[in-house]
């Protein structure tokens, strides 16, 4: 299926999870996301694509910094405005497709803007709409006329997805989008048959159906992902955002007979093996109902090399009873890191646009009676050679963790400082707390409002955001509660303390200081 | 001097201190600034002005909320884009005029943007550039192509102001701008002859010289304002921002022979008499070297009525020894408020666009042995009739304050909770603390960097921002200090605690809890 490009061929640049502003304050990596975004836009321009399709998380932070917004506006204005005419038309009702926008039409048809490359994007879980005004960072871009934010549903119970209908020559694309929704909520909606993808009335079968979604594709829990088979089988291609590993070459879901392309992120945000896979974006050609996904390797992405060592697998090298074993381990790790640095350097030599310092991660399983050595001193040796000196080495004990029993549901035990070597995940804490709480404690405010379910949604988020979100949520609920009871005077005080709470909880979290006192205060306030 | 409009006449809409986002969360007043901004832009459009000139503080918050930025972009895109051609040209080097912009040219000449009304703005003290990237909120608008941010100096020691040279027919305007700078710093620079207004090389006298500035015009302290006579006498008209009282009709500075127009704010931000003056914007006509300022009354501004009562002036009505005097005072105040509400209602009847609920302030000087009554209960009576029920009544004791001695410089005494009836101003605290500290305490970090002077600049800001700013400033200094000494590990911790500190200090401030422990910790960290 390799159509030759002609006036009937859509050329679409496909990318996702660009995470603008990620680590923006880091002296080494601070500009990585901006540089790569520019590279992506430049590929779009050079390839004279019809449009850019983004799968969410263009921004890393829900409220991106001024610098990040500024830089993004700059890039879009620079690369996506100009005289090259846009060669496709929109057949659907734009007032429906962009109903929540103050300018509910596609930007390239605005007579006051000279757009050469329209960008269409759904929002991700990082840049989703929040607050009373339910705006997201993409809406700033969209209000400025530099991006078309689509795929936003306003109901939490039922979703009807109206496609944007595009035509270029004889090719017609029905572009469906669904911005990020907490996985468990969306899972439930799918199960309850509350997600409907509307079809064009005429010539239903003549459309190439392209769906872009930003959810967990891999199973993170029973209902904490979206199984591929939930999606309608009339779809031709799913562009799946959120998952950071690049699997951009379309692979078939045999059951549903559609293809999935998972572009992956354009920046390394977690030091896990999936992120070490070479980053690509896609140049999607669609002609009639045929498609071809061309891979474009990103040249400005900082390389990331990750390796694992299991100390217990080397009884010949390491004996836990040897008093000098720690030095031996350290020497071995240095050797490994040097090899990884060599590999990184060789790779970089072939690509002058790649940033100089690589990201290096060595995961050391020290189960079996070994002791971790000082990561701090080890890091210092690589201060000027790697981009992430502070977290090159990660000690863990996989074997022992597997053997451990399930954590007791007793809240009393949970909230004490976690034992060394284990990490207490806030989402576990919150989940288990509410499991316990709902059974035992009289939580009039919480249970009457279905707090339990709401909490589930929050804990799906990044760990570091979980408590902050929870606090906000709970405070808003409490405020509403108080408002209804007309004790207005209390509101102001709550508002004032809101900020403090959020900072406080983030602070606690970062320092692994989630104490009972804080939690109870935060939850019950 | 009333020129007839023709093809040689510039028509300029002049406004300042719009403070977008002020009280945006207030259920009654939340939209006031957005509504009035739209009214201002609509006046510009209806009057077919050549451009809009803003004198700073377009935004109330240095980091305006998403809603505020979104709303501002929406208004500018709606009112300032379109097909009406811009009929003046720019003769100066735009790369100089807009040197700090990523798009260093005026927006209406950008071939990708269809601008009908260019907006030129300096920044104010509320929306001034901050942070490592030295961006301000206006730069977001400017990067989006919807505003021309000018008058920004990058040096803190020497300022050369290059005018934007505009020509329409035979009229030539040299537009000088100077974005807000801490008054004392700018005062010093003027005194040291470090502020230079550059003149066009040719036909120096043929230009109408228009200067827009955003500083204290009234004297707040020996050097805490900019005396009018500091400004060059070749100027024809100064548009003076920052001062909120509307004095838009140009008045002459006889010494310098130029005119000053002080447009005033378009929203009431402080409940002081100056803000009760009817709000106007200006339609400035300039033809050759003649000008005319036409006043345009703003119709959407919420009315504000303020009155003072001095209880001791009414010995016939109030006797402090009478056990029922408090009831009598309260009844008197209610009568006053009712009269003010009547006045407000009459005024509003003539203007259907004015918001329904007025802002009412009754200042009660209770010196002479009287007791304040419960403001809370009083407020509740007006909950549904005034926009600011919580602060209708303001009790103060003018007489006794005058008699009071200067506050002791002893820090120990200062930081205890202030005595009832007095308000401890944070700027006093900070000033006095440093006066004491610099003499007595070994402050290596602070004094070696001229902290004392820097603090002066911060205390000029709004009281509620003072400590927060100070903390930020001090933390940045400390970080720099630590960086230079290569103890990188400490940085991350500081960054984490920064947020906490800022919230904490704001919180302390709002609750009048500026304790010694906090202050010392904050200053010395």
Automatic annotation (TrEMBL), chains A, B:
Cross-referenced PANTHER family: DOUBLE-STRAND BREAK REPAIR PROTEIN MRE11
Q: Which UniProt keywords apply?
A: Chromosome, DNA damage, DNA repair, Endonuclease, Exonuclease, Hydrolase, Manganese, Meiosis, Metal-binding, Nuclease, Nucleus, Telomere
Family annotation (SMART domains): Mre11_DNA_bind
Task: Write down the Gene3D superfamilies for this protein, in alphabetical order.
Answer: 3.60.21.10, Mre11, capping domain (3.30.110.110)
**To which species is this protein native?**
Catharus ustulatus (Russet-backed thrush)
Cofactor(s) listed in the protein's UniProt record: Mn(2+)
Q: Give a yes or no for keyword Metal-binding in this entry.
A: yes
State what protein this is by name: Double-strand break repair protein MRE11
Supply the Pfam families for this chain: Metallophos, Mre11_DNA_bind
């Amino acid at each position: 299926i390799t159509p030759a490009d002609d006036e009937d061929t859509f050329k679409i640049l496909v990318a996702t999870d660009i995470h603008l502003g990620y680590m923006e304050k880091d002296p080494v990596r601070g500009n990585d996301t901006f540089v790569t975004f520019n590279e992506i836009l430049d590929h779009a321009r050079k390839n004279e694509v019809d449009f850019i399709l983004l799968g969410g998380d263009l921004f890393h932070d829900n409220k991106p910094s001024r610098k990040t917004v500024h830089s993004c506006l700059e890039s879009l204005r620079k690369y996506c405005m100009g005289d090259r005419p846009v060669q496709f038309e929109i057949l659907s009702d734009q007032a429906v497709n962009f109903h929540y926008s103050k300018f509910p039409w596609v930007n390239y048809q605005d007579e006051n803007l000279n757009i050469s490359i329209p960008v269409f994007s759904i929002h991700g879980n990082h840049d989703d709409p929040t607050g009373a005004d339910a705006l997201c960072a993409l809406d700033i871009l969209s209000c400025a006329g530099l991006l078309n934010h689509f795929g936003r549903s306003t109901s939490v119970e039922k979703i009807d997805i109206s496609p944007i209908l595009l035509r270029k020559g004889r090719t017609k694309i029905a572009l469906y989008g669904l911005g990020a929704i907490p996985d468990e909520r969306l899972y439930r909606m799918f199960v309850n048959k509350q997600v409907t993808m509307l079809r064009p009335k005429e010539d239903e079968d003549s459309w190439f159906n392209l769906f872009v979604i930003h959810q967990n594709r891999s199973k993170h829990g029973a209902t904490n992902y979206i199984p591929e088979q939930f999606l309608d089988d009339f779809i031709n291609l799913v562009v799946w955002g959120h998952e950071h590993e690049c699997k951009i070459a379309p692979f078939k879901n045999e059951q549903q007979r559609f293809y999935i392309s998972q572009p992956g992120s354009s920046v390394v945000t977690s030091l896990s093996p999936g992120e070490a896979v070479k980053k690509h974006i896609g140049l999607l050609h669609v002609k009639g109902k045929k498609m071809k996904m061309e891979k474009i390797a990103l040249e400005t992405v900082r390389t990331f090399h990750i390796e694992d060592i299991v100390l217990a697998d080397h009884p010949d090298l390491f004996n836990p009873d040897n008093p000098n074993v720690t030095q031996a381990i350290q020497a071995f790790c240095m050797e490994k890191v040097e090899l990884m640095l060599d590999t990184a350097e060789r790779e970089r030599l072939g690509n002058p646009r790649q940033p100089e310092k690589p990201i290096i991660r060595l995961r050391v399983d020290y189960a079996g009676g070994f002791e971790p050595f000082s990561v701090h001193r080890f890091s210092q040796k690589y201060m000027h050679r790697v981009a992430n000196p502070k977290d090159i080495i990660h000690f863990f004990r996989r074997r022992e963790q597997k053997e451990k029993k399930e954590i007791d549901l007793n809240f009393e035990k949970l909230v004490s400082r976690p034992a060394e070597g284990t990490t207490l995940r806030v989402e576990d804490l919150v989940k288990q707390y509410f499991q316990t709480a709902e059974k035992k404690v009289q939580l009039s405010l919480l249970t009457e409002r279905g707090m339990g379910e709401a909490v589930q949604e929050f804990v799906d988020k990044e760990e570091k955001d979980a408590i902050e979100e929870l606090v906000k949520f709970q405070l808003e609920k409490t405020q509403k509660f108080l408002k209804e009871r007309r004790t207005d005077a209390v509101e102001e005080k709550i508002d004032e303390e809101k900020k403090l709470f959020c900072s406080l909880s983030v602070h606690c979290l970062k320092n692994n200081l989630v104490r009972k006192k804080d939690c109870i205060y935060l939850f019950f306030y």
